[in-house]
Each structure stands twice: as structure tokens, then as C-alpha cells.
Amino acid sequence: MTPRGPAASTEQARTRQASTYLDETAPEQPATGAPARATTGIHHIPQVSDMKASAAPYLHPLLANCRDYWLGWGAQDRQDDCLTYYRSGLPHPSLNGVLRLHSSTPIDPWIEHGAHVLAGVPWMWWVGPDSSTEVRNRLVDFGATRAGSMPIMAVDTDRVPDISGPPSLDIQTVDTMDSLTEWVRVYSSSFGFASHLLDSIVQCEAARPDTPDLVRFTGRFQGQPVGTALMLDAHGVAGIYVVTTAEAHRHRGIGSALTSAALRAGRERGLRTGTLQASNQGAGVYRRMGFQMIDQYELFQLPPL
User: Fold this and answer.
1) Under a CB-based contact definition with an 8 Å cutoff, are residues 138 and 109 in contact?
2) Structure confidence by residue, pLDDT tens digits, 145-161
3) What pairs with residue 239 in β-bridges?
4) CA dist list (Å): 271 to 52, 82, 174, 267, 282
5) Backbone φ, ψ for residue 288 (5° rounding)
6) Residue 184 and residue 303: Cα distance in Å, rounded?
7) How far apart are CA 301 and CA 287, in angstroms?
8) Which of 14, 43, 79, 270 has the fewest CB atoms within 10 Å of its CB?
9) How far is CA 21 from CA 13, 126, 281, in A?
């Protein structure tokens, strides 16, 4: 059967861009007022406390939101079918990858196809609850090594208080090419992107097909850009991505404030659930904000086939 369709050195380095990166221990922040419960939006998605108890049917919009975000990086190639993958063409393992293999047909030809369409660039294979149950074992049989894992986390957007962050922090939306370039420059160092990739990453960001559903944020501390965040409105869920803080400004609550701003943007659109995939550094901060772990992704790297 022929399927249809056309390295990092440490576990932390492999997973930090694939996750929502928040490397700080946020101090307690005063709430600026408990937001009222949203009365519009996707009402079949339960509260997160209920979702955790019976996660399977309610994971679908969370996982679909994640797939949509990463498919937006598929500037060279993308496919969302039995095999879901994206290829930016940029030389970084988080910017190319297989997100899902969802098929009842034999798995091996799909693994070979995934390796073929992503040949020539570093990439990762994601295995989550939306993949077939045997994918993980067959990847290992093909010689794949486990690069890390990321918790899938969710929160009710109306239960997260607004967090102002430190004095002199100003959070602004990104709405021009100049501000988009600045935004990419700020997050690139946190994700380990080489400086010579800046122009190509900006081009990928500017060409994303989901731009109308994105809200990007830059955090400025004393006038200097020091942090980023992004909210994706898709599948009735507010997906939170690209949460970063410049190393010299961590541990001040800036990442928490940016996450809060992104969730607030989702809440203002009537989205009752926020979701993200956390890094090891950020998971504890997100738990303190009210996020709960619902499931997880495992990340694998395949040798050349």
C-alpha cells in the first residue's frame, strides 16, 4: 500500500520550541478583577475539571487547535489527512514534523512516507492521543529515539484572573511587518533559532494561512521588547503558543502576564477553553495559573530510512 499525498543535542533543546515555552517562576500577581463567565462560544466543550475526568471526546478540539497551529508552519508542504505533517524547509527540528498518524491501515508504509516527505530537514514525530495506538511501538522498531514529552494542558478562560506583570510592563498587539520582525527576533533566542534564519522565519509567519485567527503579543519592559505570546482561535478553543521571555527578564511574571493577555483575547472572542503544550520549565507556572494536564505528546526522532 502506498500512502496518499505528496537535532537537537539535549531533550530540552529538542522540545522547547515545540512546547509553549515559559522559563520562569512567576511571583504572585494581583488580580485586576475576576472576569465574568463568557456567555457565547462553543458550549459543548465542558469545564476543564470535567474534561479531565472523561478526556477522550473533549480532547479533539484541543488537539485540532494544536495541529492547525503547526500546519501553519508548512510553507513548503503540509498535509492533514491520515498522515498530518508540516514542512517549513527551515533547518530546525521543531519547524518540520509529523503531528499525527491516524489510520487503520498498515502503519509501516506511512512511517516510510513521513520520512520521505521530510527528508533533507531536521524534524520530529509527535505521538499524541490523536495517533493510532501502535504508532509509538512501530517508530521504536524503526529505530526512533524518544526526544521528550510535552503535557497537553487546558484551563477555563473565565477562571484565570488578569495578571498585570511587573510595573513598566506594556503588552501590545503585533500588527505591522516591523513589529512582526521584532516579535520574531524576541522569541528566536528562546527557541534557539540561528540569527541567519530571522528573515525566513518572518516570511513564514507573514504567510501563515490562519493569520485572521491569530493575535500576537509583544511584552515591553521599560520600553524594550522582552517577551512574546500568541493566541490562535480555532475549533472553539484559544490555543496559546510562543510564550517566551528574554533570559535577562525571567522570573518576574512577564510570561504569566503575556499568557493572561492571550487568554483574555480568547475570552473576548467567546472562547471558554484555553489550551497549550507546556515545556518542562513552564508547566509549574501554568499549573499555578489554573491549567490542568489533560494528556501528553511524546516526541521522537527517526534515523534516515
Assistant:
1) no
2) 999 999 999 999 999 99
3) 232, 275
4) 18, 28, 21, 5, 23
5) -65, -25
6) 30
7) 28
8) 43
9) 11, 17, 7
Model confidence pLDDT, tens digit, residues 43-82: 346 666 555 544 567 899 999 999 999 999 999 999 999 9
Share of the chain above pLDDT 70, in %: 82
Reading the block at residue 3, the C-alpha cell is 500512502
pTM (two decimals): 0.85
User: What span, in angstroms and rounded, lies between the C-alpha atoms of 83 and 92?
Assistant: 21
Looking at 35-176, which runs of residues are DSSP E strands? Answer: 77-80, 83-87, 96-101, 124-127, 145-156, 169-173
pLDDT along the chain (305 residues), means of 10: 37 47 42 35 53 65 98 97 97 97 89 97 97 95 96 96 95 98 97 96 97 97 97 98 96 96 98 94 91 96 91
Report the pLDDT value the prediction gives residue 34, as an integer from 0 to 100.
34
Q: Alpha-carbon Rg of the chain, whole angstroms?
A: 19
String of DSSP letters for 17-41: TTSB-----PPP--BS-PPPPP-SS
Residue with cell 527528508: 119
Grid cell, residue 159, equals 477562571
Stated length of the chain:
305
